[in-house]
Amino acid sequence: MEQDFTKGLNVCIGNYGYYNEGSLHDAWITLPKTEAEIRDFLHLNHLQDPQHEEIYISDYDGIPFGTRLLFNEFCHLEDLNLLAKQLVTANPADLEKVGAWIQANDTPESLVGLMNLIEQADDIPFYSWGYDGAYDKDEFGSMIYTTMSPEKNYGHEMVEQNEELKHILDSSSQIESAFDYEKYGRAYTEGGEVTVLEDGYIDNCADGLDEDYYDRDELFSLIGDRYDAKYPVSSSKTADRSLGHKQEVSRNASELLNDGKQAIETSLQEH
Asked: What global pTM score does this model have?
């Protein structure tokens, strides 16, 4: 089953300087996060300081769309955070279309290219099932197309577009019942001309999407505005305040613990 990335992107971050010194501080974070949250995360986990500035991505919990070539240790955390913002605000149906498009075509050349594909999901040549009866309901209340495989649905779709074949099948219930719609549909899908999904199909012969349509700055603006609209700044500020409060509590607890240790040591020395 395809992993659900609409909840965010989990990455593990390390630091080259500490790694070369033989000290591993790698820690997991779920993106997206605000700049303040990321800054505090790196500080609290000893992943970045004036003497150790260069971080890297040491691991990923799942790879969006199976595009493994794009996700490596050299990815910029800022780009990954932007992609995570895009994923959590995207329509799941659009992400399914993007995944199918990538499966049928080449992997994008960069994270910016991948984000361009997601941003242009509406331009993917996707077609819902249009054959007669696809959205009728059976005795259990389920739409007909949901009870069949994507290949069988596509078989019905192709029959609908072949007037001569459709006339033959409609003329005899015996011929129609013996006809293998799934095999007929699979004959088309195996050729790579289309990619079938649960709710329709993608025409792989149509013009491709433009991976360079938006540059990085334009993507930051488009995705950032959409993310901020869905998750208002006030909620981010609340999150920052909450994180800051937790840090303050942690510092206070540490100070109390040190005070307690000093008191015990003093008492032992006096006795």
From this structure: 0.73
